[in-house]
Please model this.
Amino acid sequence: MKRFRGYGTLLTVVFVAAAALIYTLTAGNKPLLGLDLQGGVSVVLKPTGAVESDTLDQAITIIRQRIDSLGVAEPEITRQGDNILIQIPGVKDKDRAIALVGQTAELQFRPVLGTIPVTEPVEETTTTSTPASTDTTVVADPTASTVAPAETTTTIEPVTTTTAPANGGYSNQTCIDGVTDEQSNPTGQALLPECQDGILVATYAVGPVSLTGSALETARATLQNGQWTVSPTFKGGADGIGLFNGVAAQCFSKASTCPSGQLAIVLDGRVLSAPTIQQASFQADQIQISGSFKERDAKDLATALKYGALPVELEQQQAQIVSATLGQDALHAGLVAGLVGLIAVSIYMMAFYRVLGLFAILKLVIEGALLWSVISWLGTNNGLALTLAGITGIIVSIGVSLDSNVVYYEHLKEDINNGRSMRSATDKSFVSAFSTIVKADVASLIGAGLLWWLTVGPVRGFAFYLALSTLLDLLMSWAYMRPVVKFVTKSRWFGHSKLLGLPAERPQPVRGRNTAPVSAATEEANR
Amino acid sequence: MSVLGRLNRGETNINFVKWWKRGLVLSGLLMLISVVSLTTRGLNLGIDFEGGVSWEVQAPGVSVDEARDSLGTVGEGAAKIQIVGTDILRVQGPEASVEHVAEVRQNLAELAETDVANVSVSTVGASWGSDITASAIRALIVFLIAIMIYLTIRLELRMALAAIVAVVHDVLISVGVYSVFQFEVTPGTVIAFLTILGYSIYDTIVVDDKIKENERLVGMTGRMSYTQMASLSMNQVLLRSLNTTISSLLPVLSLLVVGAFIMGAVTLEEFSVALTIGLVVGAYSSIFVATPVLVFLKERQPKIRTIRERLEAQGLSTTATPERLVEARANTANVAPEGNSSTAAPKPSSAPTASGAIPPRPRKKTRKR
Model:
């Protein structure tokens, strides 16, 4: 008897699966749960018009920086076609996270016409001083200034105060909801709120937009003489610093277009800061916004100046807040259902195919170990999350895996029924059956690949895990199923057809074609 | 021999020609109902397609009426309120401001006596759903083309066409079920519909591979028409199809019964209802749609037609299960090709002659033992 080489692949597969499982357990790799399973925030953004691929990547970078500023763990920001999918698992302040990534409006600079301070203290009744950012100033950078005389930094213009009722009609809620496009009226005058931590601190009457964030090159927050200041750097030329100096001159001279001498920095309909312009002309990289900033305020302002304007307008397509308890319930249900399904299908396979069925289940176990290792590895190292759709894909793939066994076993039965010896049928059937399996699995892979390529969101997770388990099935059908069935049919212990759920071998030789299974033929004919 | 025993041995003697006719009537009827329902009733699209806000919270013991009373105070009295799963309260309303969404969230948290963090919210813009639908339809079309090319290369064009007909049949009926029963269509359902394609193709490939393997019986003895051969193949492949369907169906049924009904996981329900329908329809269509369509196409091939005409001229039935079937079956095994059946199968290379003679019986390959 020639030694069968297939056992090598069998040993390899079992060894690799065991090694992978041990590695996964010792390295402490665990699958990364998607936010539909552990709770969190998911936002899908889509550009409003056609955009270049680079522009979108740039937008993603900006959004990533914004989320990083929240300090949350492992945000996942991916691009799917033209959509940007943002997933922030387990975020505490979910509404703030959504607001932050959804903050897609242009950064605007608008001259201040007048200020309405908060008439009734909204939160703290003991507040005695006006809020900090109303008395910020824009000055030339004193450390590097060649234009601005030093004394201008010391003059702080008093804030123009106009008495108007009811805060211009705004309340704290405006800070959460923002203003409508109509209210923000970029080409004319508008009343805009200034908020701090969701509390309305002032309302400004502002003129039309003078320039937008696109004129800015960058911005940074620095600590100077114990005070936090923000240093924006404008782009050179007429579209950058030229525009800024145009409005700065108006404000400095307190022209009718900018009577207050203040220039409001507006993001998403909210005034971030309204510094007073201290000189008529600035150099692009020597501007400072100073005031009684706290560190966080200064950094937030710098971030908004730097990244405030995304290169493209994004529209929120979908936002989801998943509660952790509902997510865990879904995970639990998915796992229990998977287990019950596995047991049910094991019983069925073993009832039908006996020992061969048992080895089909063992195949599932090995595939499971490999799959778990791969998912854990991807979750730990690539941040690829396992979603409920993915779990469904895996449960569906239980069927895919067993289908391969059924196809082979049925072929085996048929060949033995037709008079082949068990030994010869084992080899012959595998060839035909594997050809069928490859055809069917490749068709599945084509489907999964197209789903991955052409769709967004949860469909992708499903497609990925379906493809992964289909590939595993192809590998296992060849490397595991063939040698195992060979082993079993040759074995003294199992080689009994009853134990294998196979029909008994028919005594007549295969060669006698014309006299083939006479008994069966007459039986059928007699019916 | 019992029916089950014969099924187990692939020795059933069902005349599928008769059943195909019944199957086509059934399929035609189901497809008609689907089309009528889709055009008149349409689909019950979830908020993911229509745009809107959906809140979900686990609220044991809270009834829909209680929820409606409570939500009336925040202006959502007219919202769609359901208990899904076992105790999950789902409220769906039109698109709303962030403020309103938070307000309702708070209201629901109080109603369910839980923390606000335990209320899930999903806000969907109106164009999101059409995006999903558009991408799903695009995926469907590209999938069909790709599969068609693949099957044409691996099997043959007519089988590819028949498989596509079966897939369209499956998807149409599955979507039809959703329309007739007005089940809610969610992105999960769309995923499931796309998976149905895979199942349907899988089953059809298993069946087609068997037909391909048996193809040489047609014309070899001059005693069997393509139709009869296909019917014989169905008998042989019946158990295989049943078992692959059952082994796929059991885990999916477990998702539906254990995951969705008993444990109340709503998302699982969305997947598994569609998958269950699709699996059953897919298994049915591989035998009762793909194969008759293939037979229909093949019987129009000159060579195949010639064989049938010859058989008819001899006064033999071209549709009934031939009595030599069992004998033929034995032959199948004996001339079982080496390697890939579809490539090793002796292709009838000689074109039918003008006289309509049956091409010579292809030479058998030397058997390897």
Summary: Chain A touches chain B through 97 residues (CB under 8 Å). The longest strand of chain A covers residues 107-117.
